[in-house]
Fold this sequence. Notes:
By secondary structure, the chain is of the alpha+beta class. The protein is built from seven helices and 23 strands. The chain has helices spanning about 1-5, 30-50, 125-165, 230-245, 255-260, 265-270, 365-390; strands at about 25-30, 55-60, 65-70, 80-85, 85-95, 100-110, 115-120, 165-170, 175, 185, 190-195, 200, 225-230, 250, 285-290, 295-300, 300-315, 320-340, 345-360, 395, 400-410, 415-425, 430. Strands 1, 10, 11, 13, 21, 22 and 23 form a seven-stranded antiparallel sheet that branches. Strands 14, 15, 16, 17, 18, 19 and 20 form a seven-stranded antiparallel sheet that branches. Strands 8-9-12 form a three-stranded antiparallel sheet.
Amino acid sequence: MLKTWYSFLLCWLSLRLEANPGVKVRITQKGLDYGRRIGMELLKQAVLKETFASWSGQESFFVVKVDYVISSKHEGGITVSISGLFIAVIFEVSRDSTGHLSMLLHNCQLSINSVKVKLNGGSSWINSFLPGYLEKPIYTKLDKNLCLNIKYKIQMMDAQLRKHKVLSQIDAFAQIDYSLVSSPAVFKSHINLDLKGTVYPVGNHTDPPFAPAPFALPNQGDSMLYLGVSSYFLKSASLAYYRAGAFNITISEELAAAFNLNIALFKGFVPEIAPSYATACPVLLKLTATSPPVVSLNADRCILQITGCVKVFAVLPNSTTQYVFTGNLTASTRANLTITKQKLIISLLLKRLQFSLLHSTLGFSKMSLLENFVSHALRSAVIPVINDKLGEGFPLPNLAHTILTGPVIKINQGYLVISTDVHYKHEEGGDEDLHSHS
């Protein structure tokens, strides 16, 4: 039965690239071996739980005709031993018209070395003759029905795959399309899956005005799974969140109090405004992104550059707001990437700010002081709010009932690679440690 898993490598596949993928998935030989072990364990459990339909027949020996019924309901006293059972299954894996993975049985071959029947109890002369006559119909029944059963199971798997959601919800702002852009590519030591990897605003699946650039996963096999995420994925995410308004931030009076943004702090950066404000009233801030943030992946660095317009107001003692100034800014942030609970988490850190004043009700003699205040407001209030919006994380492609273990992120020019092992969790609460067989 080991042949069942490895025959996957012999699938008849047609590799026809329709578009460059935004995300690549590679299952290595290490991952395939682990999958085979898990598959064999699940197969054993399934066989132990399996009940087979009863069947009957008639056999003659000497002048005696015997009618028999073979059942798995444990009502009789018969033991059937099967040795040397070998099943070779070849099935075709492809991409259907909707981008789902599809499975089709191509060939199934069954070989049984021997079938032995033992009657428990009964007359000794029956025990001597009847088992030999039962072995033939049992062999014939197995030969006929096992491959039919496998075909049915593969049809069920295919139906489940077609129902699998290729559109993953990120949060209230965006969704990811993980549909296949081509059929899986099977090689001697690994399997490759090319996924669309486009992030869309919720309810708006207009493709971005740019296309993924080709990239290649490293020729390594130390980990079970390699996930390649291109800059296209992140750029489409930036565009989606921009279109959804996620980068338009308002620091309200409540948030201003939480982040300690007030006129007293403003005076600390720009002392010349002191005569205009006698009380330490809250400072409100509105940031509007004027274009999608620019994402760039370089060696070991992910940079996100936000361009926008900021307006600042003061809340007076009578609860009215007073406009203070408007300016343009370009904030260069470094994106820290981590993986938590099967998700890619992005957290921004302000590294550099360029600010230019457009209009003000006050006179500012030193723009550097005003820029320092805006930088502090971004770092202490605006960026944390953006990080909170991004905090849901991007769900990564994953196999059913598995979790990623020990993932490592490597950022390259134009793409990043996540190398990881996987850990299988049984549906019924059992657990299989993938490292225990390493």
